[in-house]
Amino acid sequence: MTESPRSISVSGTGSADAAPDLLTLLVGVECRRSDVGDAYADAGRDLAAITGALRERGVDSKDISTSRLNVRAEVNWQEGRGQAVSGYLASSVLNVRIRDLAASSGIIAAAVAAGGNGVRLHGLELCFADPAAVMARAREAAWADALAAAEQLASLAGARLGKVLSIVQHQGSPAPIPVAGIQRAAAVEPLTVEAGASSVSASVEAAWELLDDTVTR
């Protein structure tokens, strides 16, 4: 009967810090009109103005996409008539990726100015243009942590590490990336976006064969 080799299994965690280099902005328009055609046409005009302003500020066309489009009747209750249509609301939202964070404040201000009173900001989020590169560094740190722990435990047991038997990366929730901080220095100045920094975490579990330590103590 073949005896199972002795083994040791440990977990390791690691993280990598990086400054977000991509900002995703959701900007849209809403137009209320008494005629559905007017609402739709005016919303399209405002959206085109926003898109033009974004391109003038250096945002590439491939980084601008429509994520939502909606046209609906607005109704209210009228005595003796029940529900009656009071007007129409047309709305649309653009998903905009801004790669030049230093220019993001001016880009957002230009979009708001172009959209006029109908513009709506639905939020922004900071992220990484290449998240795989940041995660790779976090995995390297997690592996180094697991290896150091395994070597220490093997030494304490009077053994040494042999070949790697298994490696498992645990799938956890992605580390939260902070929403961009927004500050206003003065009423006449555009809002400024502070990117800050973020940490991405990784966790691995690895098992090694345990060999007898032949070093004379």
Describe this structure in words.
By secondary structure, the chain is of the alpha+beta class. It has two domains: 7-19 and 131-212, Translation Initiation Factor IF3 (2-Layer Sandwich); 22-127, Protein of unknown function (DUF541), domain 2 (Alpha-Beta Plaits, 2-Layer Sandwich). 27% of the residues lie in helices and 45% in strands. It has three helices and nine strands, in the order E-E-H-E-E-H-E-H-E-E-E-E. The chain has helices at residues 36-56, 104-115, 131-156, and strands at 7-18, 22-33, 64-78, 82-98, 119-127, 159-169, 181-183, 192-194, 198-212. It has a four-stranded antiparallel sheet. Strand 3 and strand 4 (82-98) form a beta hairpin. Helix 1 (36-56) packs antiparallel against helix 2 (104-115). The longest helix has 26 residues, at 131-156. The protein is elongated and about 95 Å long. The model is unreliable at 176-189 (pLDDT under 50).
Keywords:
single chain, 217 residues, alpha+beta, Translation Initiation Factor IF3, Alpha-Beta Plaits, 2 domains, 4-stranded antiparallel β-sheet, 3-stranded antiparallel β-sheet, elongated
SSE order and pairing:
Layout: E1 7-18, E2 22-33, H1 36-56, E3 64-78, E4 82-98, H2 104-115, E5 119-127, H3 131-156, E6 159-169, E7 181-183, E8 192-194, E9 198-212
Antiparallel strand pairs: 1-9, 2-4, 2-5, 3-4, 6-9, 7-8
Helix pairs in contact: 1-2
The oligomeric state is single chain
Output the number of helix runs: 3
Proper CATH architecture of the largest domain: 2-Layer Sandwich
Class by alpha and beta content:
alpha+beta
How much helix is in the residues?
25-40%
Question: Overall mean pLDDT score?
Answer: 84
CATH topology of the largest domain: Alpha-Beta Plaits
User: For this structure, what is the CATH homologous superfamily of the largest domain?
Assistant: Protein of unknown function (DUF541), domain 2
Cα-based radius of gyration, to the nearest Å: 28 Å
The CATH first-level class of the largest domain comes to: Alpha Beta
Q: Roughly how many Å apart are the termini?
A: 32 Å
SSE string: EEHEEHEHEEEE
Shape: elongated
What's the β-strand tally?
A: 9
Catalogue the unreliable spans. Answer: 176-189
Fraction of residues in β-strands:
35-45%
Strand order of the largest sheet: 3-4-2-5
